[in-house]
Amino acid sequence: xxxxxxxxxxxxxxxxxxxxxxxxxxxxxxxxxxxxxxxxxxxxxxxxxxxxxxxxxxxxxxxxxxxxxxxxxxxxxxxxxxxxxxxxxxxxxxxxxxxxxxxxxxxxxxxxxxxxxxxxxxxxxxxxxxxxxxxxxxxxxxxxxxxxxxxxxxxxxxxxxxxxxxxxxxxxxx
Amino acid sequence: xxxxxxxxxxxxxxxxxxxxxxxxxxxxxxxxxxxxxxxxxxxxxxxxxxxxxxxxxxxxxxxxxxxxxxxxxxxxxxxxxxxxxxxxxxxxxxxxxxxxxxxxxxxxxxxxxxxxxxxxxxxxxxxxxxxxxxxxxxxxxxxxxxxxxxxxxxxxxxxxxxxxxxxxxxxxxxxxxxxxxxxxxxxxxxxxxxxxxxxxxxxxxxxxxxxxxxxxxxxxxxxxxxxxxxxxxxxxxxxxxxxxxxxxxxxxxxxxxxxxxxxxxxxxxxxxxxxxxxxxxxxxxxxxxxxxxxxxxxxxxxxxxxxxxxxxxxxxxxxxxxxxxxxxxxxxxxxxxxxxxxxxxxxxxxxxxxxxxxxxxxxxxxxxxxxxxxxxxxxxxxxxxxxxxxxxxxxxxxxxxxxxxxxxxxxxxxxxxxxxxxxxxxxxxxxxxxxxxxxxxxxxxxxxxxxxxxxxxxxxxxxxxxxxxxxxxxxxxxxxxxxxxxxxxxxxxxxxxxxxxxxxxxxxxxxxxxxxxxxxxxxxxxxxxxxxxxxxxxxxxxxxxxxxxxxxxxxxxxxxxxxxxxxxxxxxxxxxxxxxxxxxxxxxxxxxxxxxxxxxxxxxxxxxxxxxxxxxxxxxxxxxxxxxxxxxxxxxxxxxxxxxxxxxxxxxxxxxxxxxxx
Lengths: 174, 662
Known about the structure:
By secondary structure, chain A is an alpha/beta fold. Chain A has helices at 2-17, 29-42, 88-91, 106-115, 130-133, 152-157, 164-169, and strands at residues 44-45, 52-59, 74-75, 78-85, 96-100, 122-125, 137-142, 145-150, 161-162, 172-173. Chain A is globular, with a radius of gyration of 20 Å.
């Protein structure tokens, strides 16, 4: 028991001496990512004319309250609705789907994408190399800054019109 | 970690936009691109941040390479190898595959729940596995010491088998296969994700194999049928599985029952004499609760029940010809509570506690008729564990993962109550040199307890009791490197050195010839596992590994038995026939191994070939496999209860399989 006590003590000292950085809770990766998603809505044209613009988070929600702040906002005359779902079938009626697939394996993405095939959903994910798996927009972090890649071929195949501005600011378009 | 003020002052004027107040929609895309962010740590660890080397085998690989059992999956993982004595299959890891050891140095988990039983600390990997491979989503193997989180038996690694959800089956699926030696397996599974939010999966399967007539030169005598065991290699098993998930709640029940004929006349039995066989039954049921408390913390709780039963019928001619029955029954319940928090910035803390009550640990041995009892031993015990792990982000590039688990083990109540306490620390420093290169430095200790079999079985069977047995402890240093050459190419290497103290083994008293379990001298092992993986954009996948290990028993200075120095594994799958099918080629090489009597088995290499397709007809899946394509004859070293020092393994054999989902 003595060894444990000593180890815990050592641990306490180590933790106490670490530099503590005060960080505001809501200024995080996913606050900024929510901002990106709002902009993707702004710079994309969907074929339908409904009053609502449904943004769906599929899988475990990494945003928390960060993304609720864009719920109810107006984008191109449509009201944004944030929807969380665990069911891929529900994603079929969404305008934007953030796919949080764990583990981020290619075959799992491909399976999910197959289930929303033939719809007009702008798919977004922040897993590694997702645009190569067929996801339309992939978010990544480089030097603490967020960048995005666009798989324009997939977007066009789903009748989505992504504005030239969005394509210009993308890190990579294919 | 960058400073918070940067986000406001750096790229645009502070005060102009207030992200904290929630005006995220008023920030331009250009501004967002230039904003520095704090990366939130995710609960699901990326393997590059894990405090060990992790290998993942997915359901795709199971299909592409025609894996029949968990054993086939494990054989494709760097550093792992299996040994089969035609009764049970045993798992070896990093040079430890001591004959007579029942895979006690690896912890096996089914969806995070301990599978190792409470008599032998063992788990089945063949058709005695708790799960049918068709229901596996993926298998994760974490190499190295795992006791700092998982406690006992996570000595050289932890296997976590993650099962599919009902949604993955999405209907009613039937599957049937036919293989060499008139082996057939059938499965029916039903699964769905319902609108109510419930995800359910149920599956039942059965396997039966006649087995071949086997020739053992050691028994080549007219009195023992010229060494041919006729129809003694039969094998049959049944599996049941139920999984329910609703919001934060989960329930899972798994069952396996397996009977295997013993063709080898082990334990000095009569050769080629029915009904020499063993039957093992394992059942588990687990209720889990897993929920986020808030965006930064999560709680997990589970309650699990387990029951394991073994019956072995061994045939002796005293005379008269008598069935000697060996039995054990283990019953336990287990409760675990775990809390994860990222409440403190740069810290990801896991605090957990586990309690296991081993209500029944019963072992018996008797002659059936005329009845004579040799052993009737009833025990019970308990163990408690408390663990704490902190993953500390020292900088953007550096993570310190520090963990410790304290266990208190109590075994054998009533007459002799043995209490042992043990602490298992682990420290890992994970350094992301560049985005594509990660270095890991790991130190840890791990252990296993002497099990009920080692402690109490021997008492009345010509073995000497030894309740003084100490836990077996291992201290490991490991360095790991992972490097992504590009998006398609991954390289990984690990170099480890470990020292085992109090290794538990079977000893013979030189004076009396009595057998007893004892703590042996130290054993050291130094080795490396090298891996390369390549996935191209057209579906070609290559996975290759080389493992080297040098093991030494310090008291004798010799290499451990059944400890291969070199292993090479190669897996390739590629789309063929205009992307309508997948071809999977598997190649495995193992260098020679010593047997318990000082001899050795030759090195060998085998090649397996599988052709599978999911695209010939919608919802139909077909596969055809040839295992040991070049009909290589090779043998596995077996333990001292056999007259044979090694047992010849299967030659070229095949399997065809079809499954259809309605």
